[in-house]
Design brief:
The protein has helices spanning 4-15, 23-37, 50-53, 55-71, 83-105, 116-127, 132-156, 163-201, 206-240, 259-281, 292-311, 326-342, 356-359, 365-376, 397-409, 414-423, 436-447. It has 451 residues and is mainly α. The chain has a domain at 1-146. α10 (259-281) crosses α15 (397-409).
């Protein structure tokens, strides 16, 4: 078996990119996990034997790093890529599957919390297939990880001697939440943005619309619930243990660990908000609210809470501010733009104004134009800052109608959304594809928001 020092060396080496997580390493891991299981006997001891107590958390870290390293090699939509790129992605996904199976086979897994990261990576790899079965597999895996996390946390209870594992489970929850909410958003964003292409190919039709809407809404709701809990856990980590500037065997959560879960959870809230009129038309009842008006207010409030988490100042260990990355700035503009289009005139002043476009309040047409212009501008390398995400790319007619209906509820016009789409077609994430403008125009015409 690998010693504690060897496990540390492998995990740190993979994170620092001085070592690779290849077939040979996975074989070593699988053999070690098999050796760990030799310590199981009946009745199963509550605690791992001393010789495994130090190794289990380190093996969990190694499984996290090994699976994450391979995840970066899995390309989105890889099943439709050329044979070379597909083979590369499938090979990486196969190694992730092996890491996840090793995590499942660990004895006393509650003492190796980071091993849940391997199941998380397996879910994300499945979602990257960008197929209906891939999304189904990803969701099942996210639920498995969530159930295991809850079970592990329950097994430690309030025993002070196990506080380290409670902290570790809190830290890994941030990654699980990011992945689950991210998958829900990824599924919805692809379905909504690619509806026109799939319809043209004969994959989806109007008969599939209601099924997809209800499925996406349910998954987004689950993701939001997990994401909101993760943000609460982040606050608890900050109070009890603080954060680390560098991932080590002891600590996983960086001071910025809350930003991406907050962004994804805010995005999921907006997607749900935009689907509310359609869900109401389908005769569905909102979970946790008496009516859809309350549900809409609740989703806006949760969005605002998530957005405030993104704005929260973050300091390094030396007291210096941790900068807001360009991709975080882009996400914040996308989020405010989506809200401005869905709830025109909403009063939501920014607390972090990194550009004048995010300082415009209320979220009027002036704010929409300023943020659209900011996204469309080129950076120093001549690349467009970003697209408008799903609000600027949706081609599912029922979603377009739902956004238009939401705007009317808040005093705007449905036509205003369609006019913005046409004026800012450049912000469609697929704008450069041949025939995309025609497909978008056909989707907007089919939506017919003039009623």
């Amino acid at each position: 078996m690998l010693s504690a020092d060897e496990l540390r060396s492998y995990a740190r080496g993979i994170r620092d990119k001085t070592m690779v997580a290849d077939d040979r390493l996975l074989t070593v891991i699988e053999n070690d996990v098999a050796a760990y299981r030799e310590y199981l006997r009946e009745p199963r001891p509550q605690l791992p034997p001393p010789e495994l107590a130090e190794l289990l958390p380190l093996m969990g870290w190694l499984l996290l790093e090994a699976s994450l390293a391979q995840l970066w090699l899995v390309e989105a939509g890889y099943e439709s890529l050329d044979s070379r790129r597909r083979a590369r992605s499938e090979a990486a996904a196969a190694l992730i599957d092996r890491a996840a199976d090793a995590a499942r086979a660990l004895p006393w897994p509650e003492f190796a919390p980071r091993a849940l990261g391997a199941i998380r990576a397996q879910a994300l790899a499945a979602s990257k297939r960008d197929t209906e079965s891939g999304y189904d597999d990803a969701w099942i895996l996210h639920q498995e990880a969530a159930e295991k996390h809850a079970s592990y946390l329950d097994s430690h209870g309030s025993d002070p001697s196990r506080e380290r594992y409670v902290r570790d489970l809190g830290e890994i929850l941030l990654q699980l939440a990011l992945a689950e909410t991210g998958t829900a958003c990824r599924t919805a964003e692809r379905v909504l943005s690619r509806w026109a292409e799939e319809k043209e190919a004969g994959t989806w039709g109007e008969q599939d619309s209601a099924r997809w809407t209800q499925r996406m809404f349910r998954q987004l709701a689950d993701g939001v619930e997990t994401g909101m809990r993760a943000l609460d856990v982040t606050a608890g980590i900050a109070r009890r243990w603080g954060f680390t500037d560098r991932v080590t065997e002891e600590r996983l959560a960086l001071p910025t660990s809350h930003r991406l879960p907050a962004i994804m959870t805010a995005r999921a809230n907006l997607l749900m908000l935009s689907m509310c009129p359609e869900m109401e038309d389908l005769g569905r009842l909102p979970d946790g609210f008496d009516n859809w008006a309350e549900a809409r207010r609740g989703l806006v409030a949760r969005f605002e809470e998530c957005y405030r988490h993104i704005e929260r100042p973050v300091l390094r260990g030396d007291g210096q501010p941790w900068p807001l990355l360009p991709e975080n700035q882009r996400s914040m503009v996308q989020l405010r733009l989506h809200l401005a289009l869905a709830v025109p005139g909403h009063d939501f002043p920014a607390e972090l104004v990194f550009d004048p476009c995010v300082g415009i309040n209320p979220l009027t047409d002036e704010a929409v134009t300023a943020m659209s212009s900011w996204l469309a501008e080129s950076d120093a390398e001549g690349n467009r800052r970003g697209d408008a995400n799903v609000i600027g790319s949706a081609t599912k007619p029922s979603f377009v109608r739902s956004v238009a209906a939401l705007r009317r509820i808040h005093g705007g016009t449905g036509e205003g959304y369609v006019e913005w789409r046409r004026a800012w077609f450049v912000l469609d994430r697929h704008a450069n594809e041949a025939g995309r403008r025609r497909r978008v125009e056909e989707a907007l015409a089919e939506a017919d928001v003039t009623g």
